[in-house]
Amino acid sequence: MTATDLLTLRPTWMEVDLEAIQTNALKVMKHAGAKNLIAVVKANAYGHDVKAVSQALWQIGVRRFAVATIFEGITLREYLPQDDARIIMLGVQPAEHADLMVNYRLEPAVGTTEWLDQAAQVIGAGRPPLRIQLAVDTGMGRMGANSEEAVSQMYQRILADEHFELGGVFTHFATADDHNQAYYDGQRERFTTWVEKAGIPRRYWHMANSGSALWHPEQIDTETIRVGSVLYGFNPGAPELKSPVELQPAAGLYSRLGSVHELKAGESVSYGATYTAKEDQWVGTLPIGYADGYIRRLGGMKVLINGRVEHVIGRITMDQIIVSLSQPEEVGTKVTLLGRDGDQEIKIEDLAEHAGTIPHELLTEFSSRLPRIIK
Ligand SMILES: *Cc1c(COP(=O)(O)O)cnc(C)c1O
Prior knowledge:
alpha/beta, 20 strands, 31% helix, elongated, binds pyridoxal-5'-phosphate, PLP-binding_barrel, Alanine racemase
């Protein structure tokens, strides 16, 4: 049995629609007028299975991918069919592992010359150059060269040192997905000015994340967008900001009723006995819990059974939840926790709003105990 076979011995699973991801990628590129896509597949492709997702994107011509860590980069290198695939690492990485980055051709985001000094020593002589993604901090405050001089200095240093080669230059927007247009404009202007003054050719630039590609396409200024969220088909912005592109959700979450039983009026369910039946009622138990990423704050959330809306009642436990049933159902009946059932739909945005968080966080918390069934 494969690992997935073993995981599906419990009838709880996530479905990933690769066609939806391919369609979203092409639609967003068209909307933003982009020629190239850097597909952000960090954190197991936002929980969707990085192997399946990166290979599906490869099929439609994507050749650049972004991850967050060296581990993710090395793993992804093994999944990609050809050596010319480019892998960018967006977070700060320890320079002491620069030799591994050369071996696996991973392109680290770098914002300081000290990092380059240390990496040059680690890499030694006679190796292929390490491609550097010059990080420019224009207002995100996480990492990167944060002045005109610093950008220029970094670029000159990369050009002059045989250990390095420029792979790209980028910045990250803090407010592309909300209403703070002035802050966005400030970041964009700083990036454009600093990078132009440093003399870095445009083909190296990339800045647009999902929010930027959706809501600021006319301001992107580069041929390349660097997006994650929209690929997976969710709206990265505040709920009241509508997406101008119709996105197709890629993830679904399903389970099957494991127990169906009747509560008598006055009886309670789950830890803390927080839910008590007001009258006799049917309930069902599902084999999914917070250890799968169906977090406790999803208590009270709706689920879909045979096209009807039912609700999670009582506290969510580590491995099981209890749902209300407006009529008795067969054990084994499919329950939709995320996705479509008949004319009803639960979106990841709905779950996030209910739990007081964002879709990105919920998706990346879906745990390895949930098998990803690739459609
Ligand atoms: C995660 C990340 C992205 C992708 O952001 P989305 O809003 O999901 O498109 C792009 N750039 C950087 C630097 C990131 O860290």
